């Protein structure tokens, strides 16, 4: 309820900060889009308008494109694969294989989505558990695709 919203949002934002920090340093991640990062175009605006945090919904681009995105989603166990956001549970979606699956790479790019874009909504779970789940999924996303005989990207932990 509304009575616990400030405490829940504090936890959502703290968890998001931990996850963003982890993802931004991972070799399988090309970029992270979150307004609290100095590299984000709205960083200064977010600092001014959102002094307690930029929320818990953000996206990142995974190396390896659509296939890596699918492997990433399939390897997650704690994150729920849903298109909605803002739940107490952590949620994940890979637009190129779900909501935008009919679009080719050019159409996705025109919409501001890469084939490896992953959107996360960070929940209230223990952040160490979330990082462990992401670590496994990132590793799986970068495994060699046997049908193509090549890696989708660098493997890292």
Task: List low-pLDDT spans.
Answer: 152-157
Number of strands: 7
Q: Order of strands across the biggest sheet?
A: 1-2-5-4-3
| Topology pattern, helix = H, strand = E | HEHEHEEHEHEE
Q: Level of helix content?
A: 25-40%
What does this structure look like?
The chain has 157 residues and is of the alpha+beta class. Helices cover 38% and strands 16% of the residues. The chain contains 5 helices and 7 strands; from the N terminus they run αβαβαββαβαββ. It has helices at residues 5-24, 43-49, 65-75, 105-110, 127-141; strands at residues 29-33, 57-62, 80-81, 91-93, 117-121, 144-145, 150-151. The strands form 2 sheets. It has a 5-stranded mixed β-sheet. A two-stranded antiparallel sheet has the order 6-7. A hairpin with a 4-residue loop joins strand 6 and strand 7. Helix 3 packs across helix 5. The protein is globular and about 45 Å long. Residues 152-157 have low confidence and may be disordered.
Structural topology:
Elements (H helix, E strand, L loop, with lengths): L4 H20 L4 E5 L9 H7 L7 E6 L2 H11 L4 E2 L9 E3 L11 H6 L6 E5 L5 H15 L2 E2 L4 E2 L6
Parallel strand pairs: 3-4
Antiparallel strand pairs: 1-2, 2-5, 4-5, 6-7
Q: In short, what is this structure?
A:
This protein has 157 residues and is an alpha+beta fold. The chain has helices spanning 5-24, 43-49, 65-75, 105-110, 127-141; strands at 29-33, 57-62, 80-81, 91-93, 117-121, 144-145, 150-151.
């Amino acid at each position: 309820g509304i009575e616990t919203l400030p405490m829940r949002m504090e936890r959502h934002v703290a968890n998001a900060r931990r996850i963003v920090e982890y993802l931004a340093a991972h070799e399988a991640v090309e970029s992270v889009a979150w307004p609290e990062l100095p590299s984000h175009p709205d960083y200064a605006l977010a600092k001014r308008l959102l002094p307690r945090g930029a929320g818990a919904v953000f996206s990142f681009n995974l190396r390896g494109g659509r296939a890596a995105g699918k492997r990433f989603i399939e390897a997650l166990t704690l994150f729920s694969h849903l298109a909605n956001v803002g739940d107490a549970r952590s949620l994940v979606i890979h637009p190129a294989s779900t909501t935008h699956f009919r679009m080719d790479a050019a159409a996705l790019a025109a919409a501001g989505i890469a084939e490896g874009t992953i959107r996360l909504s960070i929940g209230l779970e223990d952040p160490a558990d979330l990082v462990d789940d992401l670590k496994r999924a990132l590793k799986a996303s970068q495994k060699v695709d046997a049908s193509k005989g090549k890696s989708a990207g660098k493997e890292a932990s």
